[in-house]
Amino acid sequence: MDNRSRLVVLLGTLCLLGPLSIDTYLPAFPSIAGDFGATESQIQLSLTTFIIGLSVGQLLVGPLSDSWGRRRPLLVGIGSYVVISLVCAVAPSALALAGLRLLQGLGVAAGFVVAMAVARDRFEGLAMARFMSVMMLINSLGPVAAPVLGGQLLRFTSWRGTFVALALIGTALLISLAIGLPETLPKAKRRPANLLLTIKVFGGLLADRTFVGYALASALALGSLFGYVAGASFVLQGVYGLSPQQFSLVFGANSVAIVVAGLLNTRLTGRIMPRPLLKVGLAGAAVGGVGLLVGGLVGGGLATFLPPLFVLTMSVGLLMPNAGSLAMSRHPEAAGSASAVLGVTTFLVGGLMAPLVGAGGSASVLPMVTVMAGATILAVLVFATLTRGDVGITRDGEPTPAPA
Length: 404
What we know:
Strand content: under 5%
Largest sheet: none
Oligomer: single chain
Structural class: mainly alpha
Helix content: over 70%
Distance between the termini: 41 Å
Number of helices: 15
């Protein structure tokens, strides 16, 4: 395996930690609620706090990685994740678990920021788009494997054992990163650690309307899947009567769509430019979201739920790497900070989805599919409005320059 392939595998695996931390414990939601005597919304809060931790952590790690280099913030973040995962395993209450998940999210945030920043350090234009597509393909294995892993773990242990398993995975990843990930940001290209400068950099990113459009459109589309993640265990097990193991298999089978999308995107990148691929992904996500809502309204059960969900999931898997590469290509001088803004936008929007779904209750599929459909439609509107006139990465591989 050459250096590029090793880097792809390592960064893709690093990105897996977030989906694993979200999806592995989903099949255990009902049992966690039973152990703590808590409501569904109280257990869903642990998902929201984790996402908030991911968001805040990226705002911290992004500028630090531009100042200190990529390795140091990453290793500290993943090390803290391992420790907090073990503490989660002995959480005494739903509220304590929610607080610990906030800290766990802070630790794993380093992985999202550094993975994308390293990709931007090493590649430009279409080369970056291809690299990110392959990286996202590896990352897409997380939603497939995590719920299956979580369901099978419940056969042998309680939900607490799930967090011990996450700590062991984090430890293996930490060792691999310490040995195999080189520093990719030379000292000559690092920014001084200065709060005012950091604020100025973030301000410049947010002032770029097109950058914000790509980030927000991607976040809304992915947010529809966060809505599914937040409500799926209660809907599939409570409304449709599936067991934890059946739920994990259904969840994993639908997540195969992300793998299919990753393979497709990898083959198409270069033949088709990232912006047209992004348009196809957004359109497909909207079609899937509306299909879910229609199916929920007619009450067709799993037969009208699973097909549009597959379309939506596959479309999100297609648009994510293209939206990311289009946004990141505009600001190579601040890759860590740009990656942080992308991540924060994604997880803040995603974090809003869980309470929206939970507020509608779990007696029906309608609250969940309404949130999912609304998010995909908003994604299309945001893209059409904020990125209007941008041509993206051109055929020669050069990005459209960001405004001065």
